[in-house]
Amino acid sequence: MKEVGVYDYHRERKQAEDFAVPFAEHVQETEQISPNKAYVEVIANFSADGKMLPLKLIWENGKSYEIDRILRVDRCASLKAGGAGIRYVCRIQGQRVELYYEENGFWFVQRKVTGIREA
Length: 119
Known about the structure:
2 helices, seven-stranded antiparallel β-sheet, alpha+beta, single chain, 18% helix
């Protein structure tokens, strides 16, 4: 006769975590794919009807920027940096900034590439 045991959720979860890719490694891997993407931290507000509104952007060096105004929200692809998601066209310190939220949960902006001249 076969013994019936108790399902151990925590043991199965631990085994799954052993194969998970750490967050920092995933970001480094994606930066190598597209050097034009700058992954940023974003503080957002969620309304009662489920809308996500970014409030503050935190750059790679830790400097934070308040989002003054959201001008437009649409589903769009970033042609320069690659990737697609929800695009938030924002005004930050008087500058127009396109902030993208990917379906994998990452936020990014397009890097400004300097020193390259088009022929």
